[in-house]
Amino acid sequence: MTADVPRPGLRERKKQMTRQGILDAAEHLFSEHGYEGVTVAQIADRANVSVKTLFKYFDSKEDLVFAGEADVQDALCDAVREREVGQSPLDAVRVFLKDLAAADEHANGIEAFHTAFGGVPQLRARLLLMYERFEQALAHVLAEESESGAGHPAPRLVAAQLISLFRLVTSEEARERVASASADERLNALNAWIDESAALLAEGLAGYGIRTSASAS
């Protein structure tokens, strides 16, 4: 028998509601006007809080876009850590990505994130930092599991490949594949892209692009 988890107090619940209200306001405004077309003051006004209050919850406008980063990182690591017997880390990430895409089918899942924010110059560095953090966290999980010694390249190399699959789901090529499909088939198109990319990773790179004739001088 498990003990009941205590319900947060009124003060904490109000803080959670305020934080979520700010995030909801930002999401709506970003959707309507784009990231660059929205100011912090407009978000605060939409959420019925002051700019000072907004900055008590978020350090920057960028943080409003990446508010769920830690949750996604934890879920990704859990998917690999808790994978079924006989399942590889690659398969675990492939399934995780497809589940993430299906979670918001009408918005085309993770593809929608890149559509909204992937082309914003101010966010590119922050997006790369997020993927680097994902890679580090996943490498740690793999190193613990394999008991690799310090400095062994395998966990980090594998993590880098798995995160490359994660980031390239929102690449220009993936977005073109999704955009070329009908509205009803976009999720299937994204899933097919994930499966094909994972299959290529599984095959390895040794046989890819082998030159069969001398290049022209």
Keywords:
mainly alpha; TetR/AcrR family transcriptional regulator; 67% helix; Arc Repressor Mutant, subunit A; single chain; Tetracycline Repressor, domain 2; 11 helices; transcription; 2 domains; 217 residues
Topology:
Elements: H1 10-33, H2 40-46, H3 51-57, H4 61-65, H5 69-81, H6 89-102, H7 110-117, H8 121-146, H9 153-168, H10 172-179, H11 186-203
Account of the protein in words:
The chain has about 220 residues and is mainly α. The protein is built from eleven helices and no strands. The chain folds into two domains: about 10-65, Homeodomain-like (Arc Repressor Mutant, subunit A, Orthogonal Bundle), CATH 1.10.10; about 70-205, Tetracycline Repressor, domain 2 (Orthogonal Bundle), CATH 1.10.357. It is about 65% helix and about 0% strand. Helix 1 packs across helix 2 (about 40-45) and helix 8 (about 120-145) packs across helix 9 (about 155-170). The chain is globular. This is TetR/AcrR family transcriptional regulator. It comes from Streptomyces lannensis.
